[in-house]
What we know:
Largest sheet: 7 strands, parallel
Structural class: alpha/beta
Amino acid sequence: xxxxxxxxxxxxxxxxxxxxxxxxxxxxxxxxxxxxxxxxxxxxxxxxxxxxxxxxxxxxxxxxxxxxxxxxxxxxxxxxxxxxxxxxxxxxxxxxxxxxxxxxxxxxxxxxxxxxxxxxxxxxxxxxxxxxxxxxxxxxxxxxxxxxxxxxxxxxxxxxxxxxxxxxxxxxxxxxxxxxxxxxxxxxxxxxxxxxxxxxxxxxxxxxxxxxxxxxxxxxxxxxxxxxxxxxxxxxxxxxxx
Length: 242
């Protein structure tokens, strides 16, 4: 692994899903990136530990044939913060995502901000956890068309009960250009926390009037942010509504 940012044209994107989801959560963004000539890989995280998810992401990065933009949604922000110093990674994109500093207790950090409603819907069983159907549809996937939201619920990945206790050993956002999409109607991660994280990493930031799943409700906006990262451009803060 390296703290050196690769140079040259970026034509690869690796997408990493968060908790309570799988790689299909990116299915609306992927065709838009393909249309722009980007090679896309969507990681399937096991969600069993930070180390396991980072290993899955590194395997995907190892297969890339050149500079790559690494994208993480939600919990995957922790994953890409750990994996993002991979020598292939040219930039990081965070979508309503966690972004811990090295060794940081992210749960303690999040407790300084409003408690999102989805937290009350977490159901634990046999060492794993999932969101209840009501919490998933109302809070996690708010604003997603009903049939699509239920399909996403059906593929919800159970997470290890102690997944969120994992702490990063590095903060790749300190060494890579960063981009952040804040979901202003987020009921899974507090928008105030997202803004704090984006400002702390000095990210090029957009705000989207969306629930936690901005890549489903606003795929064009998220694809545009990713493409901005592939071009290495850092535009002004944008506000995307509707």
